[in-house]
Every structure is written in C-alpha cells, then in structure tokens.
Amino acid sequence: MRHWKYVQPKKFERLVDAIYWARFVFSCRSARKIFVRGCPVILGISAKELETDPNFDIDFTRAVKTGLGDRGDWTADKVSKSVKFFSSKDSLDPEHDTYKKMLYDFLTMSGDHARCIYVVDNLDVFNASFKLAADGIFELLPATGRHIKGAFKEVLNVNLTDEDAEILAGIPISELNLAFRPGRSVDAATNALDAYFLETKSQEDEDIHEKNKEIQQLPLIEDLPGLGEAAEWGRELAIDLADWKAGKISWDDVDRGILLSGPTGTGKTTFAGALARSCGVQIITTSVAKWQSRGHLGQMLASMRSAFDSAKRKAPCILFIDEIDYVGSRSEVESWNSEYNNKVINGLLEHLDGLEGREGVVVVGATNKPGVIDEAIRRPGRLDCHVEIRLPDKSDREKILRWHLKGSLDGVKIVDIAERTEGMAGAGLEQIVRGARRLARRQRRDMIIDDLISQLPKLTPISQDFQWRIAVHEAGHAVIGRRLQNWRISGIWISTHHRDDTGYGRTSIDEELTPRTTKYLFDHAVCMLAAMSAEREFLGDHSEGVASDLYMATHDIYLIEAKIGGGPTPAFLCDLKGDWQSDVRFDHALRHRIEQRLDEARETADRLVKEHRDEIYMLAKVLLDVKKMSAQEVEQFFRESQTVRLSLVQMSTTIQ
After folding, report:
1. What is the tens place of the pLDDT at every residue in 89-142?
2. DSSP for 585-599?
3. Is the pLDDT of residue 609 over 90?
4. N or C: which end of the chain has fewer CB within 10 A?
5. Rounded CA separation 234/491 (Å)
6. What is the sign, positive or negative, of the torsion defined by CA atoms of 544, 548, 549, 552?
7. Which of left, alpha, beta for 38 (phi over 0: left; psi -120 to 50: alpha)?
8. Distance CA 626, CA 283 (A)
9. Do you find a cis peptide bond into 9, omega within 30 degrees of 0?
10. Do residues 158 and 5 make contact, with C-beta atoms less than 8 angstroms apart?
C-alpha cells in the first residue's frame, strides 16, 4: 500500500466512527431525516458485527452520537440512551419482558419526541408486532470503498486512491480501528497494515502447504471407488494438464472447472484432493461460508479475491470451493438481501472468467443443492461440467471399506458388512472402520470382523405384517407408475430390518428427460398417491410412510397452479427461493385450488389401483418373498404380467 502524510483529525476523532456513520447514513437515508425533524421514531437495524465484534455496540453508539448529537432538541446524551442492542438469542415476542421493556423505553424516554434505535444481529429478530410499531427497519449495509475514502478524507484529510480504498474495505473494521487508532501517524498505521497483509499471506501459504501434505495420503483418482463419471473426468483432466505443462496443448483445450453435487459424505472433498494428487498439482481449499465469515460484503469479496489470487500464485493448481450454492442465485425474487447476492455472484463470475488471467487454475465447486446455483456460474468456460456423485452401491461400499481398512482383515469376507450399509455414504463407512480400529486398539489386539460388525447402525427387525404393508406400498408405486407414465424402474427393495438413517423400502426410477407438462405433473402426482391408495385398498388404512409421497404430490400440483400457468390464471406465482410450502400455507386461494386438484389425483389413484389390483397384489407377493428386485427382474415381471393380461382378455373375448 502507498503511504499517506499524517494530518490531525477533524470532526470524527476515530476513523471507525466515521465509517460507521457513513454506513448508517447510506443504509437509513430516510430515517436520518426523521430524526433531524424531531418527530418520534422507532428504528430497527440489523448489523452482523453485533455478533462478531465485541466492541461494536460502543463504536456504533459513539458514531451515531457524533453524527446526530446536538441537533435541534436531540442532544448527544439522548442519542446514547436511545441506542439499544439485542442479540438473536433475545426474544421480541410481545409477551416477553425484553419486548415490553423496548416499548416502555420508547414511551417513557422523551414524550412526543421519543426516539429509539434498536440494533439486532439478525432481521428475523423483529417480529410482526415490532414491524407494526417501527418507522423503518434496515440492514446496516457493508462499507464500500466510497465509505472508506470519505472517512479518510473526513478524519485524516487523506485522499485515498480507489484501489487502496477497496483494499481497506476488505479489512474488518475492528482491525482497521486498531491500525488507525487516535494519535498514531498514518505512516505507522500503513506500516502495520503492510505487516498484517504479509502475515496473513504467510499463514495462508502455511495452511496450503499443510493441506497438500495431507493429500499425499489420499489415493490416486483411479484408485478411489464410488466416483463414477467424476473419476473419468478427473483422469482426462490429469492427462490434459500433463500435456499443457509439456506445451503440447494450450490452456484453451483444458477444462477450467467442474461442479460436483451429491449427498453429504459422498466424497466431494476427497475427490478434489485425489484429483490434485493425480494431476501432480497443489490444491487450495476454501468455501463460501469461509468467505462470509470474514464479515460484511467488502470483507467477503476480499476473501474471495484472496483465494483466487493464492490459486494464481500456485498455478497450476486445483481451487476447491465448498458449499458454492451459498452464493445464491440472481433469479430469486427481490428481497432485502438481493443486492448483496448480486454483488457476490458478480464477483465470483469475474474471477471465474479470469479477466486478469486464470491460466493453470482449475476450479472444483461442490454443493448438495445444484438446483439453486445461478445459471451463469454453469456456463461454458466456468463450471460448465456438472457431475453427480451418488451414494455408493454394494460393490463400491466394499471397495471403500477395503481402502479404509488399509490391509486389516485381508482374506476376511466383508460382503455382509457392505450389504448392511446400504444407503450410507463414504464418510459413514470411514466412521465404521475408525470405530472398529479404536475398539481393537483399546483392547490391545488386531482388528477382527466382529469389531466392524459392532460399529454398524442398530437394526430393528420388521414384522411380516409390516413387510407386507411395505411391499403393497412399493408395488402401488411401481405398477401405477409403469401403467400411467411408463416408468423405467431400475430396482425395488423392501427392508427386513430398519435402520434410523434409511427408509423401509424404495422404488428407484430411471427418469428420462421429459417435458414437465401439466399432464405429466398431474400423472406424477397420481403415481405418488398410488401407494397410499394401495395400502387403503389392501389393508383398510394407510401409514405414515405416505408422508414423503404427499409432499411430492403437493409439489407437483403446486407447480401446475403457481409456475407453469396450469391454473385458472397464467400468472407466475412461484417462489423462486424454494419456499413453496409458505405459498401453500398462506395463499388461501392457491391452497384451495391445490387441494381440489389433489382430491382429483387421489380419486384417479384409487380408480387405477382397483383396475390393476391383481397386478399390484402379484408384485407385492413377489417382493415379500425375494425382498429385492433388479431392473431386469422388474422388466420380466411386467412382461409376464402383460402376457397373462392379454391371455385373460383373449379368453374373455372367446367366451363372449
């Protein structure tokens, strides 16, 4: 950073006060006029620093006191008494003492000229009653380079460049306050900041070094089981990077990034480390949550830039960004934080595009929710390749267990262990092995198979009657799904024992890319409700197992009524943020239309179940006997069932 000449401060004695005042004015422009006019006011402000900075309440009160104090009938002393702070742990319920105290303070402070500023760490703290009483509720917006530039001019009479102002905007205000404390020359402060940046960079380099020592313990990408298409992409990238380093191909011929999605624990982070090792490059790991933890928008964007800058210095390298869905999407409807989301996404896009150069940096983004990521992030040249890492199958689970066993139990069959861990991700399998190894270590002996068995999730036997209900349920899905939407069923299974982290049964479908028309969504809702109809048809009542089916059926009908114009109006009523349940709960007209269509879908499901009763019964009997059916076995059943049906039709025609 450049150094500036020391000048005695002006109106604001502290730089931090001037910055907070600039943020207050910028965030609450209309409220400031209300205060100056002298009329009574209740103002609510959300400030994240209240949770992260222990001195925020003192600094903010002093800033507002200096900025608003001694104006008209509102003295600086009154300002100090008017600013109140509450954390999200406090309740603002009208019946709670905290809320009553807030209103009491307001009503008794200054009569007709009462003024109160209530500062919280989360806007959700303000309930409907408070919003009714408040004259304004605002978020304390983050400091920008413009705020920093103005504060330096106001306090120190220093003219910052735009570049230096943006750099300083990325530093937490609490740390900026320590550097530019009263009585310290600007030269001394900037020297301290230079040392701060150097130390921060050294710590980042040390963290990167330690992380790359860890990945040397990981397998190569080709030896890592359960990754499917992601492993193939990784092998191709390793070849391309080797050719690029050898000068055989240009950077334009190398994939710049990939988006990994999948359930928690499926190995997305492990994949990134193994990818770096296979490619013979370093890895830099970060996350959107880590960027956000730095504080306000300016600090987050600075943290983001720091991660990409580190990657450029270490190129060629892998930059792994976890929880990338946290950046949000610009397709969300307008909200109080939409401007924040837009700036974060635009900042990320700028780095992904590499306008300043990103040669040698391959970005790997990971998410559990690929559907909420802004479409622009997945465009060509950014994270255009999307690969889903699914839960491992039986064969892959056995390989994963073998990898974590590291030679223990060689020659001992663990296929039964793999069988009993269906539905578990790689992280859960690793935990089983770790627990078994710990048990053997405590007893000062080598691991035995019983150690692994002891770490398996507890299984509760399922009675024969309950298994019959599960079989009927899944058969209802499969038969009606096949007859109504021609489902391609990849497998059906029912459980004999229940584990807390798994369901009782499943009908897996290989869905093709099909236009989601009004008819398609309605028929899909019918297929979801068919399991409930089957239970009622064969057993007289349905069980709680239909809850997820009802959820999906309701969502199907919601899309018809609120998103694709299938209701009485073509208006777009869908909540793009994904909170569609709130729409259904609070929009009574929409809810009524959805309930009507659901009743129609249920009646259709009841009728179809009766029509295909014999086929559902036969499939349920087979499931009860074999417990699990592969795609081929399901296809064979439907072929034979169709043959029997045709024979019966022909016999009926002959008799007539």
Report:
1. 654 444 445 555 555 555 555 454 567 788 887 777 777 777 777 777 887 777
2. HH-HHHHHHHHHHHH
3. yes
4. C
5. 29
6. positive
7. left
8. 47
9. no
10. yes
pLDDT for residue 568? 82
Give dist(CA 469, CA 475) in Å, integer: 10
Lowest mean pLDDT among 102-111, 220-229, 592-601: 102-111
Burial of 440: CB neighbours in 10 Å, binned 0-12, 13-18, 19+: middle
586 CB burial (10 A radius; 0-12, 13-18, 19+): exposed
Write the DSSP assignment of 508-556 as a string of letters: EE--------HHHHHHHHHHHHHHHHHHHHHHSS--GGGHHHHHHHHHH
Residue 133 · residue 41 · CB < 8 Å: no
Distance CA 422, CA 628 (A): 12
Cβ atoms of residues 67 and 73 within 8 Å: no
Backbone angles phi, psi at 424, to 5 degrees: -90, 145
Residues 94, 127: Cα–Cα separation, whole Å: 9
Q: What is the pLDDT of residue 284?
A: 87
C-alpha span between 154 and 115 (Å, rounded): 27
Q: Check the CA dihedral 218-219-225-226 and report its sign.
A: positive
Average pLDDT, the chain: 79
Regarding predicted confidence, which is higher, 190 or 490?
490
361 bridge partner residues? 317
Is-contact 387 344, C-beta < 8 A?
no
How many C-beta neighbours within 10 Å does residue 29 have? 11
pLDDT of the residue at 205 = 57
Distances (CA, A) of 347 to 1, 15, 503: 22, 27, 42
Please compute Rg for the chain using Cα positions.
31
Of the candidates 206, 258, 558, which has an alpha carbon nearest to the alpha carbon of residue 385?
258
**Which tokens go with 293?**
């933890």
- Higher-pLDDT residue of 599 and 283 is 599
Q: Stretch 343-349: mean pLDDT, rounded? A: 84
pTM attached to this predicted model: 0.58
> Tell me, what amino acid is at 400?
I
Strand partners for 317: 282, 361
Q: How far apart are CA 271 and CA 276, in angstroms?
A: 9
Split at pLDDT 50, 70, 90, the class of 295 is low
Region 59-85: mean pLDDT is 71
CA distances from residue 620 to 53, 389, 437 in whole angstroms, order as listed? 61, 31, 41
Range of lowest pLDDT (53-67, 103-117, 595-609): 103-117
Considering 323, 474, 561, 615, which one is annotated as catalytic? 474
Q: Is the confidence at residue 651, as pLDDT, over 80?
A: no
Output the CA torsion sign for 402, 403, 409, 411: positive
- How far is it, in rounded angstroms, from Cα 108 to Cα 30? 24
Q: What is the DSSP string of 425-480?
A: -HHHHHHHHHHHHHHHHHTTS---HHHHHHTSPP-EE--HHHHHHHHHHHHHHHHH
pLDDT category of residue 370 using cuts at 50, 70 and 90: confident
Q: Is pLDDT at 653 greater than 90 in this prediction?
A: no
The beta-carbon contacts of 60-64 under 8 Å, at least 24 apart in sequence, are 60/20, 60/24, 60/119, 62/14, 62/17, 63/12, 63/16, 63/17, 63/18, 63/19, 63/20, 63/21, 63/24, 64/20, 64/21, 64/24, 64/117
For the chain, what percent of residues have pLDDT higher than 90? 20
Q: Which amino acid is at 514?
A: T
Strands of 385-388's sheet in order across? 282-287, 317-322, 361-367, 257-261, 385-388
**Catalytic site residue 474?**
yes
